Amino acid sequence: MPVKNRFAELLPEITEWRRDIHENPELLFDLPRTSAKVAGLLRDFGCDEVVEGMAGTGVVGVIRGKTDTAGRVIGLRADMDALPIIEATGLDYASKTPGKMHACGHDGHTAMLLGAAKYLAETRQFDGTAVVIFQPAEEGGGGGRVMVEEGLMERFGIHEVYGMHNSPGIPLGTFAIRPGPMMAAADQFEVVVTGKGGHAAKPHEGIDTTLVASHIVVALQQIASRNVDPLKQVVVSVCTFRTESEAHNVIPQKVLLRGTVRTLEAEVRDYVEGRFRAVVEGIAAAHGATTEIKYERGYPVTLNAPDNTDYAVAVAHSVSGSVDTSVAPLMGGEDFSYMLNARPGAYIFLGNGDTASLHHPAYNFDDNAIPFGSSWYAGMIEARMPAA
Length: 388
Ligand code: NI
Description:
Elements: H1 5-23, H2 32-45, E1 49-54, E2 58-64, E3 73-79, H3 106-123, E4 129-135, H4 143-149, H5 152-156, E5 160-167, E6 175-176, E7 180-183, E8 185-194, E9 198-199, H6 209-227, E10 234-243, E11 250-251, E12 254-263, H7 266-286, E13 290-296, E14 302-304, H8 306-320, E15 323-324, H9 336-342, E16 345-351, H10 370-384
Parallel strand pairs: 3-4, 3-5, 5-16, 6-15
Antiparallel strand pairs: 1-2, 2-4, 6-16, 7-14, 8-12, 8-13, 9-11, 10-12
C-alpha cells in the first residue's frame, strides 16, 4: 500500500481546498467559514452522517465501510484553526485577513483529512466505521478537550483515535513518531510579588520587589538543573516580567511574572508544580515579600500507546517507506492529548521539508505532503479494519 494513486488524481482538488482555507484563516473557536466548508464537502462526499456544532464549530463525519462484522470504530482527527500572526509569505493565496494566518499548517491537516474522507466514502473498502474529526481551537482554547467533554468518543462509539501534524525540518514524505510521550504537558503560571514600594534612593526603607522577583526568576531555573532527575525533561520559562512603575527612581510595590512549565511525565509534572510553589514562596519570604501564585494545568502529555504506535508505523512505512521511530519528543503542547487520554491511539509527524518553522510568519504547508498525509489517514482505516 504505497501512496494511493487516487490521491495523485485528487491532489489538485485537495490543494485547492487547502489554499482556500489558507487564504481565509479563522481563530480559536470562531471558525464559521472553515467549518461550513468542511461540513459541506463531507456532505458532498456522501458521508453517512455529518454532525456540526460540537465545541461550537467542530465537525464530525461518519463513513461506514462495506461491512461491519466486528463493530469497530476508528477516529481520525485534524485541527482547523489559524494563528494571530501577520503573514509574510508573499503567496498569491496568502491570508486575506491581516493578523490571522495559517502558520501551523492546520489548513494542510484539514485538507489532507478531507481528502482521506472523500476517498473512504468513495471506496469503503473496510469493515467497520471511520469517524473523521475536525476540531477548532487547538492553538489555545482546548477545542479537543471540549469535544471530548461533550461526549465525542461515546457519541460515535470510537475505539481508537489517530492524529497527525506536519513538521518542518523533517524531509517531505518522511514520517516521525515514537511510543510514549510525543508532546509535553503545557502548564502556565502567573505570580504577583508584593514588596514595599518607595524611593529608589532609600532601599532600606522598602522591600525591593524588583530584586525579589529577579531572585525568583533565577531560582526557578534550578528546578530543571538541580531538582529534577537530569534524565527527565522539564522546561521552566519566565516570559513576562512587569513592574508597576516605569520610573527610574521608584521601587515598585508589585511585580508580575508569567510563564510556562513543560514536562513529559505525570510524576514530574506534579513534582515541578510543588517545587515551583516552594521556590517562589520561599524566596519571597526570605526577603519579606509576599506572593500570589496562579498555576494552571494546560494540555496534558500527548501519549502514544505502544500498540497503536506500531500500527501507525506500519501504515506510514507502507505509504512512504521512510519512518523515523526514534524522534525526540517535543516540549510543545498539543490538545490531541485529550483525545489520547480518552482512547488509545497515536500522533504522528509528517515531514514538511526545509521550510520556515511552525508559527513563523514565512511558514507555509507544502502541498506535496498531501498524498502522503491523506494516504496515511485512509491507510489507518483500511489497515485497522481490513475489508471482510
Ligand atoms: Ni499545530
